[in-house]
Model the fold of this input.
Amino acid sequence: MSSLLSSAGNLFLSAARSSLSGDEKPGGSLKIGGSQLKLGGFRDSISEPAKGRTSIFKVAREPCRLIREFKDNETRKVEENSCGEDPFEELRHRFLSFKRHNCLDDAIHYQDLAQGQAPQFMVIACADSRVCPSKILGFQPGEAFTVRNIANLVPPFQHGASETSAALEFAVNSLEVPNILVVGHSRCGGIRALMSMKRENNSRSLISDWVSIAKSARLSTEAAAGNLSFEKQCSHCEKESLNGSLLNLLTYPWIEKRVSEGTLSLHGGYYDFVECTFEKWTLVYRDGLEGGSKYAIKNRFLWA
Ligand SMILES: [Zn+2]
Done:
């Protein structure tokens, strides 16, 4: 698999180099693992428009004139979307800027990264578009092995395979990350869905099935904060479920072993994007803690 990924990476880099130079060369080919891949086939098809029609390729350069030329209403809709509203055009510029200012300016570092990764963090964050760990915590490529899901939940080991448990297995057993950070956040829609679930509600959805992993957090929230407003209950549950996820990490035998040995640390983080603050804490797990418990929270800080 690694050679396949490597080949795909080389193909991607080759294509990106071509794009960066501004050379649009349709019709080339590339040989990968004995297979001759034709490049630019799609571009060929659009750079040679049918008689009476205009190339979509050309539209990007002369958008307004071309829109007038199209008579077919359906085609017109497609072209209007290409007329300055294509979100991928912005992404293309961002990528090429990233390439210039990162991959090329710091080529040695990025060539090292191409050989392998040794991240210091495994990060589990919510899929919410406002909660971007790389943006808010400044992770650079190679620094954080990251998985994002609805409500940043960690299912218990007994739950079986999921994208999160698979990512944990790779990060802990193969990459041997020294830190796992679970990042929760304010106004989490997944937690809101969890708190909205009625115990007797039989309606099922993929979202409700997923967030029900944190059902115990909802129940403990209702017990501890049931007299508060629904919004405040949700805020309470966001941290309650986060700590539940930290405890669920310890149900994975290879995580529990490394935490016990002191080679892996478990951390919680809570990003409040209303106040723009970040709270961070560490879950301690060992025998002989105060009160006879094996669990304790320490190193709790609020970054504000
Ligand atoms: Zn969320």
